[in-house]
Amino acid sequence: MSQSLVKINVHIVFSTKYRKPIIREEVREKLQAYMVGTAADLGSYVYEIYANPEHVHILCTLPKTMDIADLVSKVKSSSSKWIKPEGIPDFRWARGYFACSVSESVVPVVERYILSQPEHHQKADFQDEYRGFLDENGMEYDEEYVWD
Prior knowledge:
4 strands
């Protein structure tokens, strides 16, 4: 086989340091656009993104030349530098993240879920949502080390 063909969809979730709700509404859409542009520069297509006050959901493709840790690290690092001059000088992302693969047939479901974040978080907080992702995906974790 002479050509490498790869398409891996991933749902990525990460939070602000200590889950501080510091992503203001007036910055949210610009932050999302910046993160989409960063991902595109890295070779990732973003299906959907939503920045909540204390966490972000991204549904995107994983570039075939990059591992998930590099993609997340570069998006977080770049956006952290970008957001500080936007009036949040002490902004930091938490160290960890959640990521899972998403089957092509489920992409529309995850897109709708991401777009419904404001409604979803009227019923459940971020920590409960995050624990649910870990549990649904059979990920073992120690509650003591999940949050920073």
